[in-house]
Amino acid sequence: MYTVNGTFTSRWALATRVLTTGVRRSWRSECPVRRGYSTLDETPAKMQQVPKASRASSLPRKAQFPGVTNSYFTNQLVITTQMDPIATYQVMDTDGVVQDAGQEPAVDQELAVRIYREMITMNAMDKVLYEAQRQGRISFYMTSYGEEALIGSAAALHPTDVIFGQYREAGALLHRGFSLEAFMNQCYGNALDLGKGRQMPVHYGTRDLHFVTISSTLATQIPQASGAAYALKLQGAASTGDAEPKRCVMCYFGDGAASEGDFHGALNMAATMECPVIFFCRNNGFAISTPASEQYKGDGVASRGIGYGIDTIRCDGNDVWAVYNATKKARELAVGHNRPVLIESLTYRIGHHSTSDDSSAYRSKSEVEDWKRRDNPLTRLRKWLEAKGWWSPELETRAQKDIRTNVLKAFAAAEKQLLPSPQETFADVYAAPEISPALAEQKAEVMGLVEKYPDYYKIHEFQKSGGSQS
Ligand SMILES: Cc1ncc(C[n+]2csc(CCOP(=O)(O)OP(=O)(O)O)c2C)c(N)n1
Ligand SMILES: [Mg+2]
Question: In the list 41, 52, 137, 263, which could disulfide-bond 132, CB 3.0-4.6 Å?
Fold first, then answer.
């Protein structure tokens, strides 16, 4: 905090590895003059040491307005320009060495190896599908290179927690059990695709795995997630006992999506309605070609959580165990106390934004190469596993080979499938089995054209009939 003539008067922020939380607001409100206290934890004790008489005379008067209830009057004209940056929680360094043994998560070999294999699978799938788009075999694709540690967040959730994604969270879906075949079928939009070929590639969704279908329109999932979490809270309140596990909502989005108005409405709703939702912002430094430095002036996205009175954690998004621990803690707060939590996971987008982008137009290739070499989420986890004796160069070679074979097999199978019948375009619009007269008219027109020009529409590539609604 600075006075108008620039004199430093006081600064306050949280120490490292401490959840940045509204819980501490209660004593903050008792302590308007914070000079000399390095962390919030030690302050209440110091406050008690102040003699009663001097406290009474030195304490400013509370400003009693309904809009803000924790403020005190001051006779100094103060402009608050800056707080210390929120610290970034890390468990492993870039060599996979745990810095504080107390922070190492209690994950067993099976889970740790599973997460690592899923990271390799993500890379293998990205490579094959990216190339497939380049060869014109699918229309579009987005890779997750550099952001593989996000899988740690999915591993910290309960399998029935509801996930709202943006598009670069295929790792979370893979961890939930979405098969390679299901990924490939969606990207091909073939007759086996759960979405019946009506979405762009990478717009996955599956009711069985509680993963809400991706929407291209940026940030729409964030208020939807607050609403879904509110619904879960109401259902939880009405539930009859322990038979149903308590659930929360996980909402993934990027730093660019956090610039949309929807982000702000969603956070405010979740805070005021006390919704059990985790807002997980993948801050990968770019919104397509716009670097974070041109996107906002504040302390990243995390500082906005505090502004909304939301518990906030910033973590190293390339450290799978920091991501895992942060999400586990957030889930405890969400499920146990109906508290929304914002996690800002700092990472770097190694790939182009999508197959429609060439990032060499706005960042140097050496910058990307540097990140790949210096801070790779897979290398960090691999080194950690090797140090435990849970992984070896031999296992690495075999896993790389087997996983690539499985990815190629699923890819070949998806490519062989027919496309869904054009009739499917008109199905599932309404819950009722019949479609509306207007839609029936459009369907008749389209099917008439398809039958009239079968070569133009390559009708041999489509299933003959279909349509769960007629
Ligand atoms: C409402 C809206 N505006 C713009 C776009 C175009 N668009 C698609 S992705 C994107 C950038 C998003 O960046 P970020 O949220 O950081 O996610 P990232 O791609 O980095 O994972 C933009 C601007 C869109 N899809 N929807
Ligand atoms: Mg981004």
Answer: 137
